User: Fold LysR family transcriptional regulator from Azospirillum cavernae.
Amino acid sequence: MDLRQLRYFLGIVEHGSISRAAEALRVAQPALSLHLKRLEEDFGCQLVLRTARGVVPTESGRRLAQRAIGLIESMDSLRDDVRAVESVPSGPATVGIPTSLGPVLTVPLALAVRRAHPLIRLRVVEGLSGHMLEWVLSGQLDLALIFGAKDMGGLNTEFVAREQLHLVGPADDPLLRGRAAIPFAEALALPLILPGRPHGLREEVEHAALLARGSVNVAMEIDALEQIKALVAEGCGYTVLSERVARYGAAAERLTGLPIADPQIDRTILLAHATGRPMPVAARAAHAILRGLLADLTQDGAWK
Assistant:
């Protein structure tokens, strides 16, 4: 028994004729008779009486018709409720954004979600990219932007952009003046101010150093990008950043940078969510808006 059979049965009762019900329901009369037969077999009793004037429900048929009307109405209401959830997203959505991407994404995302879906309670968590990965896997975040190119178990990932890393130093640093790039080996030997593990930037630099059979000269560990840039601007050392990150913030005008070469170091930006846990409707709506913002940034050259 399914809802379609109940709808067909109600049509037969309403029209008092299998032929008229078949015409109204746009179902072949033999098929409608077969559905009625199967319904009677399911209930183990006769549901209608065939007379010269048509069909009339038996007592059991009248009881079924009464209950079927309420059941179908409830299912229609349930369907409307479920569709409403999809069409009018509401509830919490938690999005993780690495600190380095916050200046270009957090406020635009919050504004866009608020305008498109005012019933969504958006929470944006900014932090280290390494923590974003952990929080998505643990369920603390519905989705997040992370860095990395390797396959990550337990995550669905979408490619967003790839950006080249630069050695960043004070704007008046003679070592960086008049050069088009700096070899990676030379950059490694400089006193570097880097975030600690598990920051994605730190892992990218150390992984590249390992492949080049070199070591990273870490002079200071600071888990705050703006403070790292401020210290570099004061001449306390150098750091490794993308050009996009280096040009934002209070210290940006006092910094300069060179692309790292031989080898070039790239990092990949991914949009990720956990594979084993479906995203809530509100999170899916925020995900769609975030994808649109990322596409706009990519087209505008914000990743270069």
